[in-house]
Amino acid sequence: MAFEIVVLVSGFGSNLQALIDAAKAHPDQYRIKAVICNRPQAYALERARQANIPYFTICAAAGQTRESYDQQLNQQLETLQPDLIVMAGFMRILSAGFTEKWQHKLINIHPSLLPKYPGLNTHQRALDARDAIHGISIHYVNAEVDGGPVIAQAQLEIKSQDSAETLAQRIHELEHQLLPAVVLAIATKKIHYNLAHHQVTFLGDEIQAPLSLENLYRAKSTD
Ligand code: GAR
User: Fold this and answer.
1) Which of 75, 113, 123, 191 could cross-link 135 (Cys pair, CB 3.0–4.6 Å)?
2) Record-annotated residues binding N(1)-(5-phospho-beta-D-ribosyl)glycinamide (predicted)?
């Protein structure tokens, strides 16, 4: 049976689309069992509908506590029993109880080279700091916002003419390559999370630095 993932989204869903396209290209390796979204107007839901993927909208009610929202999310995930949960632009902070429970199968994509710039407005913060390099990280999720062991990163050079908008566009291009590559590597057991030691292993060895797209492609070509 194919490895089953659930994708959590909040917005445009271009990373969800990259995952949909990769799943179509590798139907024997993973399938998207469902999409869960916290915003009813998100275009990501239209992408799920077009791809015939079941989707669920779980909106936070006014005054609802984080814990209560996460319980609802947890219930849906309990029903779905995914092998992996992918936060692909899911813009909610998760409670410690939730992350504790799912941390062994919960990954997030974040638009910065963590540990730099957890949180929001990462492109503008990289520009304001006059960074030469910016990038993206994919990591297992723990209770710390944008914390948790980093699995893979990809980077780009910031050009003098870059704005937050041009960076966002170039960052998205990197994300659309790296995220499906990481999901495929987890689905095919090349990447493993050793929860007891909070260590990520790749092809059996603990990683000493975040994996690159080249690492992942090289491992794929030896299949
Ligand atoms: C992506 O750039 C992702 O890295 C970011 O939201 C965007 C979603 O784009 N996530 C975060 O900032 C989480 N901290 P998309 O909806 O087009 O996939």
Assistant:
1) 113
2) 13-15
